[in-house]
User: Fold these one by one.
Assistant:
Number 1:
Amino acid sequence: MPDVLGKFSEEIKGKKAMFLLVIATTDVSLIPGITIAGATEELTHFTPPADAEFLILGKCKVINAIPVTPSGLPTPAVISRASLSLLKINALVVDAGSKIKPKIPYVDLGGEPGRDIRKGSLKREVAERIVERGTILGEELSNDYELLIIGESIPAGTTTAMATLVGLGYDAMDKVSSASPDNPKPLKRKIVEEALRELPSDLMGRLSKLSDPMLLGVAGISLGFKGKVLLAGGTQMVAASAVIKELGREKLKDVGIGTTRWIVEDKSSDIIDLARQTGVKLSFVNLDFSRSRFDGLRAYERGFVKEGVGAGGLSLFATLQGISEERILSKVEEIYENLLKEAK
Amino acid sequence: MPDVLGKFSEEIKGKKAMFLLVIATTDVSLIPGITIAGATEELTHFTPPADAEFLILGKCKVINAIPVTPSGLPTPAVISRASLSLLKINALVVDAGSKIKPKIPYVDLGGEPGRDIRKGSLKREVAERIVERGTILGEELSNDYELLIIGESIPAGTTTAMATLVGLGYDAMDKVSSASPDNPKPLKRKIVEEALRELPSDLMGRLSKLSDPMLLGVAGISLGFKGKVLLAGGTQMVAASAVIKELGREKLKDVGIGTTRWIVEDKSSDIIDLARQTGVKLSFVNLDFSRSRFDGLRAYERGFVKEGVGAGGLSLFATLQGISEERILSKVEEIYENLLKEAK
């Protein structure tokens, strides 16, 4: 019973699906201590293109290393790649605004990287352009697919997600998750409070100031797509749902979030409350890495990484297509083992 | 009986298909008299993004005008858009190297615009990158589609096509077509002969010097795609087939060209001979615009425009899916009429 709010897994089961990975960066990830998605602050900007390359090719080109946290924990892209290879569905990378571009084909939405939200993330025309072109892309994919699964990779994305949710009036402070078991909540709160201090009164003004290119791209694509949309991610995808609701309220009924058990059970955040507030459906996949052969994967059970690169939604959809959790774990281990071999 | 060489229309009938429009520019189109795809030489670089925007949106954004030749003849994108809207299949724009980018989402292959082939079109690493990323894109689309229909928009593309074919050893001089009924053969021949004067001995060296980003992108995508490939275009697509053959000979059996009757019947070029030389299959669509209500469309029967933006292949595939030529013409006229209204 993976459905927590609504019955989205029943709605999407068996649907003809495609996966999009939407990548972006903001300068929020350069703030020391805000994210563990990169060995140094500067390297966080390499994480989205590295995730994209790993997802598609099984190896990275923008960096000469496996995409892991500083302590050596593997990117959730191993789960996404495992799920995609079992699902055998098409996947494309979409760049909504990354400082470093992946060295593989990607769909360009004409976006730009976000700046520090304390000064303002995006110029208004850039924010509008990302939504507009995202919408066109969603429309373009509507003929052949009944379901779009959308994942994300953006370092410090939970901070911009929290800023966006609070800026749109939700009770979201301290409720977003983190890739670290030590969610740096005081720091996130301080940044978001500062960003909220001077706020434009209109919707696009607020989104331009507080949001990130990924959230706007995901919202645009979802609004343009004519079928169901599975937002594959954690609390960031609640923020994406909130943007979708603001820009096209009637679309939300076709939207659900698919995430991991590690996010739903996370004590440092509250995705269920956030999803309930926005009204988006919420489901999760019951992956259990506690019996994995690899310590790097068992660490997921200790609150590390948790989600990202569409891992939760893709593996959830795989289980709905009849692929067992055991088979997914076995494929994840196979991919992770190859990663470790290549790193030697 | 649209099959001229081979029986490709039988092979692809009923297949699950997607359309890609590959756009690019070279500075060859800046040579006075070489092309009519633009009101001035400089404006030829706006034609590919304008074609892309018109195909997807039904209007142009990079230019404030309908995409027509200087004498007011409509872009073949009206045929492509009509066919797509009847086929209801997904379409994406791929930028292999355009000077002006379309203001819609497009897949970026990391290419660059070509220069004048007399000096050398592309740096070798750029040419290799376009092929490599095109191949990845083709692979990415292989799960859900059995057939990829690939069209092109590149001004002066027949000149780079002729240079490529001759440079690869084919008897192609004076055999490529033109968007004008007065094919500027002496000028094309002069440029190609000059470009051929100093030629690297290896394959990628030759392609870098003589080819254009579109040909390399189309070849890469075709090589990566696991199903059938319908090259939707005229003599340029023979050059693309020749590149495919050089880079992966075994793929050619899954490749066919779909073009218009106007290209096959063109007295100023010889696509049948060129296709026979390369060994690619060739089929055409029997659109007849002689009874059209619009002079701009009847001009196609007088040798203007003829092909482009995937017009021939897309309308051929539409007829294979049971859509009559009359219905296509009627849709083309509807789209063209709206164009004329908006231009007023």
Number 2:
Amino acid sequence: MLHRHLAIALALAGSLLVLPAVAAEQDKPTPTAKEILARSTPAEWRTPDPQNLLFMQLPTGRVVIELAPDFTPLHAANIRTLVRNHYFDGLAIIRVQDNFVTQWGDPNDDDNGDKSKIRSLGKASRTLPPEFTRPIDAKLPWTPLPDGDVYAPEVGFSEGFPVARDPASGQQWLAHCYGMVGVARDVAPETGSGSSLYAVIGQAPRRLDRNLAVAGRVLEGMPLLSGLPRGAEPMGFYTKPAQRVAIESVRLAADIPAKDRPAIEVLRTGSASFAALVEAKRNGRNAFYARPAGKVDLCSIDVPVREAKAAH
Amino acid sequence: MLHRHLAIALALAGSLLVLPAVAAEQDKPTPTAKEILARSTPAEWRTPDPQNLLFMQLPTGRVVIELAPDFTPLHAANIRTLVRNHYFDGLAIIRVQDNFVTQWGDPNDDDNGDKSKIRSLGKASRTLPPEFTRPIDAKLPWTPLPDGDVYAPEVGFSEGFPVARDPASGQQWLAHCYGMVGVARDVAPETGSGSSLYAVIGQAPRRLDRNLAVAGRVLEGMPLLSGLPRGAEPMGFYTKPAQRVAIESVRLAADIPAKDRPAIEVLRTGSASFAALVEAKRNGRNAFYARPAGKVDLCSIDVPVREAKAAH
């Protein structure tokens, strides 16, 4: 919403909007996302597998990433190995390119770096099979979207991730939507290891689809990656080391005692509440948005995440 | 590009890539955007009308906005009046909502503000006819895109702006792509005056199309609007006044002596070079991007802007 007045905006976002009793049915505001989520059932939420959940601690806060091993299993495994080596601890955000990506990794592993100080990947692989696409498989969940896509014959959601697919080739792939996490690489397709990752911070760069491996999605903390000064070098690399945000640590949820893990839940993309959210995006109507779009594109749909308060 | 190594990236971005002489024609890299622009002719660039060009000075640098009076003429006129009153000088960026918008205006004109200090709009109107759409008109330039759109029957460019249109209704409108500048309003459609504006900083919120007036586009300085900390209040409003970025001044190019105006040019969206750029987005291929998307969506196309160095 783009209100000049916060109170009006909040009233509309909530349920405080009072309409005349004579308003026709089609003029009634449709349920808001907040209302839909308030009615969701516990079974509609899933707890990500702790083997797939990463906590990246920055000086400014915590970024939570869910890996997608059904789409990029070798990358997920290699990233876990790196994380368990504490590979990322002390590395940094090396690049922020406007309307494109925020990338992190080893500052010495680029041109201005000190090659003698490049950090070892330890037991992790330096190269991996690309995993740019994977076969369509009826065993994976699939929630199609109804409004088409400029880039792919079919789009929808699978296990919380935005997915594009091409029945003609039998392949599917994670789409480069806002907040998706991809694997940086050199020119050769197999040179991505997961030691340098990027998050999409602008209009979905869908031309990257099928050219890079997508490892997962940022569940929490996107503002910590997107709200950073852009780097002045070509492609958004920072000019001075002091401009880089340091990575304090990256940890796997599975390596944190269960009682200390944040209780993060993600709305199931096969749930009725998720379908209602998609419909609210397509045809949501209130006093402010009088003209529903009637459509929604894949990358305009947010998959809700919540964190239950610790009971102890 | 998502290279780990800057040198490789720059080589690919330029023309330094050496391929074996035996490479088949289809394996040759296609021209890069940089190469296409280097070959563009002076006549392919236009100088925006100084009546439509705004310079917003922030402590961090200059944001340049081009108004779009062929789409929102009453809003353009009202914004000019506000600017000539120096209305915006000393106001601020009041809101940064992640993956949505950065909005500026009068901090006192919201809930936490001091109503007694709301700045007068002077001779500018407090309300305007909405101008959410306008008729399709053969007199306006039109460069259609070939790959369709999720939201509208037709999309393309007109005078440097991304446009969607619906031949059935005979209407067209500026699309809410990254960097487009819209007019904040209250609930009633006519309550937008241009005294509070927003720029899109995330995935194109196309559901806003036809619900809000779009006044123009940021030509330069998007990183100064997008690379800001997100506000912690609902909808990205800042919690504390000190978090707001101040607007030092907003000036119209027409009010600056011609010799002192930055010589900003925008590539004509009807030019051959622009068509080549669109084709490079669709089917560009190099050693890094081996698999062209074959398609491009409206909001993934950047309209190039350049600034000639002053000759004096």
